[in-house]
Amino acid sequence: MAKNVIILLGALLMVSNIVRYILFLRTTRDVLSSGSRRDKIWKIVALVLLIFFLIGYVTIALFGNADTMMTMILFFGSVFVSIVLTLMFNLLETAKSRSIEIADVLIGVIDARDPNLNGHSRHVRAITMLFYSYLPGWVKSEINPVSLEYAALMHDVGKLGVPEAILNKPSSLTEEEWKVMRDHPKLGVKIMEPLETFKNIQNWILYHHERMDGKGYYGIENENIPLAAKIIAIADTYSAITMKRSYKNKRSHEEAIRILCEVAGTQLDENLVEVFITIPKEELDKCMPEQINY
Ligand SMILES: [Fe+2]
Predict the structure, then answer these.
(1) pLDDT value of position 71
(2) pTM for the full model?
(3) Fewer CB within 10 Å: C terminus or N terminus of the chain?
(4) At what angle do helices 68-113 and 145-154 cross, to 10 degrees?
(5) Catalytic positions, written as ranges
(6) What residues does each domain of the chain span?
(7) pLDDT tier at 64, thresholds 50, 70, 90
(8) What is the reported pLDDT for 284?
(9) 234 Cα: distance to centroid of ligand 1 (angstroms)
(10) Rounded to whole angstroms, how far apart are CA atoms 110 and 212?
(11) pLDDT above 70 as % of the chain
(12) How far apart are CA 55 and CA 209, in angstroms?
């Protein structure tokens, strides 16, 4: 009887292992995954094996008569899988934070070229991730948060290709200069092209200046704008309003919320703005990068 209880404990641990493994697969899809067919097959085989083991545990616990040795092997087998999964998660976290650190440095260089952008990309990244945590479950399940974080941080990477004379122009831009400026999402995609892991976020970056009414940079309308691009657009707009620029003062949170509500439905996604305005001001304030003091 006691042996069956130990095997059943092992089975419960195996259920949690399967759940954690599925979470691991979800986190590693798109980015931080080689995306190769062979890897996908291995991942599915591993999942099938875990389920197969679980069925074995339950069958033995209910109908079998395992000896002490077998009971221990089964129980510690579950513990072993659990330890391996913990190590995999830790490794994933390390890989994620290391690569985002590299991206963060690169973005810092881009922001530094334009005093008006100073800290903007990091600000948008922090707001986007805070916003993501407030989104309903169905939206979250559609978007990989790791991919979203990279896209938010890198959304203006194309500004690397915009001459500093245009970026830092104190007066308003000419039509010709606007044309160059409007190309920065396309340039961003070009810069990211060689990076296989970022293939899926290219369209998010490309369409971050699109509007619901189709009057954005490339005339893409509502249903054709990726959900993640709509999320980044809201964070980008909030950041642009609440950060100081050489040509304008920063505006208050309340004013930013009023403007977001005003442009909801025409420029920004109405349903998403509805969620965004529920985020407490104090939490949004914490998204401002530390080096920005004014
Ligand atoms: Fe942009």
Answers:
(1) 85
(2) 0.77
(3) N
(4) 10
(5) 159
(6) 2-94, 112-285
(7) confident
(8) 95
(9) 12
(10) 28
(11) 95
(12) 51
